[in-house]
Amino acid sequence: xxxxxxxxxxxxxxxxxxxxxxxxxxxxxxxxxxxxxxxxxxxxxxxxxxxxxxxxxxxxxxxxxxxxxxxxxxxxxxxxxxxxxxxxxxxxxxxxxxxxxxxxxxxxxxxxxxxxxxxxxxxxxxxxxxxxxxxxxxxxxxxxxxxxxxxxxxxxxxxxxxxxxxxxxxxxx
Length: 173
Prior knowledge:
Elements: H1 5-16, E1 19-22, H2 23-31, E2 40-41, H3 44-58, E3 64-67, E4 71-74, E5 79-81, H4 84-90, E6 94-99, H5 102-113, H6 119-140, E7 144-148, H7 149-166, E8 171-172
Parallel strand pairs: 1-3, 2-4, 3-8, 6-7, 6-8
Antiparallel strand pairs: 4-5
């Protein structure tokens, strides 16, 4: 069965008992803003402060999964890295990055958001996410697991279950 990130995260909650949180939803709630479907983001730095404050306000602690990004599209549509300071403040114990065929992502974006993006732009964005995710993992000296959602989802769930046994810090997808 092919499914997307949201269904996968529900699956994680059911199979591991971990809570999952969407970084964009936390930012929207705390900052009282609404993101556009085109995924272009104004005030990337300010939004990351909203995220940190939302986590503090909600008093999130222990094990949980934060569903977010390492890069965003700025308001001009250019790929921009989230400041490394954000990840130091989040202090994750692990990083997981979901990888998918760009063609599938493009099709899902059209169905879900009615937004047309190119396969090449999507490929470039995904490569930027993975490259910067690895850079963040090296900088924080934490493990990173990059996996394909539809081919390795059970492997990813096992990775999370095993991680729960050895750590009580945050996980990030």
